[in-house]
Amino acid sequence: MGSSNARLCWLQSFLYGAIARAISTVVTYPFVRAKVIAQTSKDPTRASMLAIIQEEVAQGGVTGLFQGSGPEITRGVLSTAIMLSVKEKIAALNRHVLTMVLVGVAVKR
């Protein structure tokens, strides 16, 4: 690991944010899909998340758990990556302004 003072450029923030969101979406999407299926199901026996996931795997394989995940991954990855890169740009601007203010105060003394 690098120094705790290491700063990320906006592109690094964008890429790290995109990778992190893609991983988190892939991990959580099957559960989100199972929740939606449970909420929209008319059959009360489909209330168990585990039962829904098992049924989806039996019907469509593991890829059935990720049916419709493309738009969610795209939306999530782009929004998170943009948010983190903008945050990094704002943080850099704040550091620059704070440095200029502190230098100005030091010069006046």
Mind sketching the topology for me?
Blueprint: H1 10-40, H2 49-60, H3 69-108
Q: What are the salient characteristics of this protein?
A:
109 residues; mainly alpha; 0% strand; rod-shaped
Give me a quick take on this structure:
The protein is mainly α. The chain has helices at residues 10-40, 49-60, 69-108. The chain is 76% helix and 0% strand.
Written overview of the protein:
It is rod-shaped, with a radius of gyration of 22 Å. The longest helix is centred in the C-terminal third of the chain and has 40 residues, at 69-108. The mean pLDDT is 85. The protein has three helices and no strands. With 109 residues, it is mainly alpha-helical. 76% of the residues lie in helices and 0% in strands.
Q: How many strands in all?
A: 0
The major β-sheet equals: none
Oligomer: single chain
Report the uncertain regions: none
Shape: rod-shaped
Distance between the termini: 39 Å
